[in-house]
Amino acid sequence: MVRLLNCIVAVSQNMGIGKNGDLPWPPLRNEFRYFQRMTTTSSVEGKQNLVIMGRKTWFSIPEKNRPLKDRINLVLSRELKEPPQGAHFLARSLDDALKLTERPELANKVDMIW
Questions:
Q1: Global confidence as pTM
Q2: What region does 2 belong to: left with phi over 0, alpha with psi -120 to 50, or beta?
Q3: 62 closest CA partner among 8, 17, 23, 16
Q4: Domain CATH number, residue 95
Q5: Residue-wise DSSP of 33-99
Q6: Residue 37, domain member (yes or no)
Q7: What local confidence, expressed as pLDDT, does residue 1 receive?
Q8: Rg (CA), the chain
Q9: Which Pfam families match (predicted)?
């Protein structure tokens, strides 16, 4: 089954996505709400969206906000041996993550992949 992979990213004016494990700008509430709405809203009743993120992104999220609520959280890492606390799944590469979404335990639960 071929799945559409959605991408959502915020960048600074010089195309930066992070600085020293944090965002290179002050909190942008409207953009955060947009990210939350886009990655949480499923078009299929009974399914959730899956959010794929790197290890550094996972650990940059305040612990009180992990895992991202109402989404299946998958972390990419070649270093970790098991999913970090709170994450639902771990994969070594994007290719491995997408293969994981084809397995029955995820294929029937996932609507969109972000």
A1: 0.90
A2: beta
A3: 23
A4: 3.40.430.10
A5: HHHHHHHH--SSTT-EEEEEEEHHHHHHS-GGG-SPTTEEEEEE-SS-SSPPTT-SEEESSHHHHHH
A6: yes
A7: 64
A8: 14
A9: DHFR_1
Give the domain extent around 76: 29-113
Please count the residues of the chain: 114
Catalytic site includes residue 23: yes
The token pair at 76 is: 């990419």
pLDDT 10s digits, 11-66: 888 888 888 877 777 888 888 899 999 999 999 999 999 999 999 999 999 999 99
Question: Which has the closest alpha carbon to 69: 36, 28, 98?
Answer: 36
Residue 16 lies in a domain: no
Query: Is 28 a catalytic site residue?
Result: no
pLDDT digit string (tens) for 67-108?
A: 999 999 999 999 999 999 999 999 999 999 999 999 998 999
pLDDT of residue 27: 80
Domain count along the chain = 1
Given 23, 80, 98, 106, which residue is catalytic?
A: 23
In Å, the largest CA–CA distance within the chain is: 42
